[in-house]
Amino acid sequence: MNNLNQPLTLATLPGGQFSARVTHCFDDGSLMVECDGRGWHCRRAVSCVIAPQAGDTVLISAVDNQMWLLAVLERGNEDATELNVPGDLRITSLGALTLSSNALNVSAAKGDCHISEMNYSGDNISAWVTLSRIVGKRAESVWQTVTQISQHLFRTTRQTEHVRAGQLDMKAEDYLRMHAQNTVITSKAITKVDSEQIHMG
Question: Radius of gyration over alpha carbons of the chain, in Å?
Answer without folding.
Answer: 34
